[in-house]
Amino acid sequence: MKKLIVIMLCFGFSALNVVQAQTDQDVIKSIYNNSLTQGKSYDWLNYLSNQIGGRLSGSVNAQQAVEWTKEEMEKLGFDKVWLQPVMVPKWVRGGKEYAYIESSSGKSTTVNICALGSSVATPSLGIKAPVVEVKTFDDLARIGKDSIAGKIVFFNRPMNPKFIETFNAYSDANDQRTKGAREASKYGAVGVIVRSLNLRLDDFPHTGNMSYGDLPDNQKIPAAAISTNDAELLSTMLSLDKDLKFYFKQNCRQLDDVQSYNVVGQITGSEFPNEYIVVGGHLDSWDLADGSHDDGAGCMQSMDVLRLLKISGIKPKHSIRVVLFMNEENGLRGGTKYAELAKQNNEKHIFALESDSGGFTPRGFSFDCTDEQFEKIIAWKPLFKPYLIHYFEQGHSGADVGRLKNGTTVLAGLSPDSQRYFDYHHAANDTFDAVDKRELELGAATMASMVYLIDKYGTN
Amino acid sequence: MKKLIVIMLCFGFSALNVVQAQTDQDVIKSIYNNSLTQGKSYDWLNYLSNQIGGRLSGSVNAQQAVEWTKEEMEKLGFDKVWLQPVMVPKWVRGGKEYAYIESSSGKSTTVNICALGSSVATPSLGIKAPVVEVKTFDDLARIGKDSIAGKIVFFNRPMNPKFIETFNAYSDANDQRTKGAREASKYGAVGVIVRSLNLRLDDFPHTGNMSYGDLPDNQKIPAAAISTNDAELLSTMLSLDKDLKFYFKQNCRQLDDVQSYNVVGQITGSEFPNEYIVVGGHLDSWDLADGSHDDGAGCMQSMDVLRLLKISGIKPKHSIRVVLFMNEENGLRGGTKYAELAKQNNEKHIFALESDSGGFTPRGFSFDCTDEQFEKIIAWKPLFKPYLIHYFEQGHSGADVGRLKNGTTVLAGLSPDSQRYFDYHHAANDTFDAVDKRELELGAATMASMVYLIDKYGTN
C-alpha cells in the first residue's frame, strides 16, 4: 500500500493533474496548435496536386490517388485502412475544345470553352450555327421551337453577386449547366453554350457535370461552358449582330464504367467501437486542373483530422473514420456505396462531417440534424470563439455524407469563407498555389475539434 | 385642405411608406447590394495600383495618387474636397540591394534581401562580415559585445504560427525589425539582417520601417530584411559553418522632408454639420509593390463608403469625411497632422474608422472606446449577421485614426480575415491580383453600414 502511494505520488498525481487540466479549451487549443505548427494537410496537398494532379473518376491519376492516400494512411498507423470497391462512370474530355464566334461579315474571334462533364461530343467537324441567347428555361418557352430549332442556345444568366454566401448564387444559377442541354434539346437546339459559373470576369471556362435526364441518345446535344469574359463578348456581339454564328468542337466521350475505390482509414473506438464518426472529402476532381480546392483540400484535411487527434493524445471512444469518397463530381457513386455498405453492415453512424467547399479560412459548420441535436451542438460554440469560428447553422451538409441521411445521424459540412471559391471551381486555375497553408490548417483543426467534442459528448 | 390630402395621397403616402419600409435591415441590405453590384472600390484600386503604383511618401507616385484621388472625389460630387498640407520624410531605396552568403571555403550563394525603411546605406562597396544569429535582444546581452563586435547580427525569430490573428504574431515579432539595428549597434555590430515578417516560407523580402531611436549618426548600422526561405538557408548554413560570412550592399538614403498632403472629402451633415465621422486609410505605401492590400484597399473602400451612402439615398446627419492619410508607413505624419488640425479647429469627432488590414473578407471591427459606447454598438451586431460579420471586440483601432484618441471619440478598425495578410505585407507581391473583388466590396459595405448606424444613432 505504501508502495502504491509512493507510485501514485511519483506518477499518479501528475497524470491526474494532466487529466484535470485537459479541459475542452485545452484540448482544442492543442489541436489548433498542432495543426498550425505540425499539420500535414498542406504538404500532402502539395503531393496530391503536384505529383499526382487532376483525378477525374476512372483516370490513371484517380487510381494513383487511391493508392497513395491508402499508403499514407497506413504509415500513420491507423487501426485499419482499406479500400471500398465501387464502379464509377468514366468520361473523357479528349482533345482540347475549340470555339469561335463568326460575325455575319465572316470575321472570326476565338473564345475559351470547355466541354461540360457527361456531355456528348460535337460531330468530328464541329457545329456551326446561329445563336439564341437566353437566361432561363422560361425564355426557351417564350422564344419557342421555331426560333430555336437548328440553333445553339447560349445560357447567359450570371451568378447573382448579391448573395453573400456564394454557394447560394451557385445553386441559383446552376440549372443552366446541369439541365440546359436537356431543356434546349426539346426545342430543337443543336448545342448549348453555358456561361461559366464564376462570379468573376476572367478567361477560364468552368466545367462541371450535366445530365441529359431520360433524353434518348439521338436527342443528346453537346454542351460546353464559356468563360465569363467570352460570355460577355458573345452577348455584346449578338446585340450588334444577331446573325452571327458560333462554332465549337469537342471530342469528349462516355466510356464503360470502371473499377475504383473509396479509401477508408479508421481509429477504432475504446468504448463504442461499433459506433462511427466519419470525416471526409472526395478524392476525385475535374480534369482541367489538379483540384486543390475541389476537393484535394477536404481530403487532406480529413486525413489530418485523425492524425491531429492522435498527436494531440486523444483516444476516441467511438470509431473515427476518414473516408475519401470517389466520384462525387460526376456520379456520387462513392458516397452512395459507402452509405449502402454502412446500412448493409448495420453500422451505426452518429456523425458525418464533409469538407468540400474549398480550403479557405473556416467560418464554421452547417448541420443537417434535428433541432434537439442542434441545440446540444450549438452550446459548444463558445469553445470555437478564440479561433474566430462563429457560423453554426442548420442546413445542407455535403453531397457524399448526405447519402447517410437517416434522421438520427448528425450530418455536417465545414463552412469555409466562400468568397473566392467560384473563382477556381472546376476551372484550370484550381491549383495548389491558390491554397493558403494557414487557412487549410485552420480548417483541419476546426474539423478535428468538432469531432473531438462529438466523440466525447455524443449527439443526443 | 382637400388639395393637400390629394397631394398626400399622390406623393405623401408613398413617401411615408418608403420611410417606414426603410428599416435598418433594408438600408444595410441596400448598401451591400450596391457595393456588390455597382461598387467602385475594385476599379479604383486597379487604377491606383496599376496606373500609379507604389506610393512611398515623398515620391512622384504619392503625389500623383494625391491628385488623382482628389479628382475622383470631386467627380463624386462630395460637398467639399480639399488637401491638407503635411511635410513628410523622404527615404529612397536607391538601386536594388544585393547580398550573398560566403562559406568559409569561399563558395557564395546569393540571397533575397531589401533595405528596411529608414535604414542607412552600407558603405558603397558593401559590408562583408561574420554572422551572429539571435532570436531576441536578450540573446544579444547573453552573447555579449566581445562576440558581436564587427559582426552582422542576424535576427531570426519566426512569427509565431500559433496566434490565430496574424496581427498578434506580427506585434510579437516586429521588435526585431523596428529596433534590431538600434540594439545590435550597442554591441558593436556592423549591420543587421532581419528575418522577414512573413508567416509563409517564400522568397520575398518584406520591408517596413525601423528606427535608430536616439542613436548618434556614427552608430547607425544598415538594416535589411531577408526572405523567410533565405533566413532558413542562412540559419542552416550557419549551423554547419559558423565562420561563414554575409555580404550585403544597399544604397538607401534619407533626404530632406518634402511637401505632401492628406486628401479629404466631405458630405456635410444635415443636422450636426460640425460633428464629424471619419473613415479612412493611408494613401502612401512601400515601394516594392503597388501596395494594393497595404493600403490601397483601405483608401478605395473609404472613398466608396461615402459614395455608397450617397447612392443608397442616405442623407447623413453628421458630416462624414473620407480621409486618405499620407505617410503612415514611415512617419505617421498625415494622421498626426489631421488630429492636430481637428483639435486646433475644435472639430468634434464622434467616430473614426480605419481600414488598414488588407482588402480581405471582412470579419468585423475592433473598437477603441468606453465600455458604455461598446455596449451601444454591440447591440447592432445582429444587423450584420446576414453578412457573416461577427467580430465586435474592444481593442486597437488603427495607427492613423488612433491619433484622434481623446476618450470620447469612438475609434475603430475594420477587421478583415488576417490569414493571408502577412504573405503580402510590405513585399513585392502586394499587388492588385492578390485582391479579390467581392472581398474588397464586402469590406466597403461593412464600413458604410457601420457609418450609417453611427450617424443615425450616435455613439453615446
From TrEMBL, chains A, B:
Keywords: Carboxypeptidase, Endoplasmic reticulum, Glycoprotein, Golgi apparatus, Hydrolase, Lysosome, Metal-binding, Metalloprotease, Protease, Secreted, Signal, Zinc, Zymogen. InterPro entries: CPQ (IPR039866), PA_domain (IPR003137), Peptidase_M28 (IPR007484). It comes from the Bacteria. Residues 1-21 form the signal peptide. It is found in: Endoplasmic reticulum; Golgi apparatus; Lysosome; Secreted. Residues 262-449 form the Peptidase M28 domain. Homodimer. The monomeric form is inactive while the homodimer is active. This is Carboxypeptidase Q.
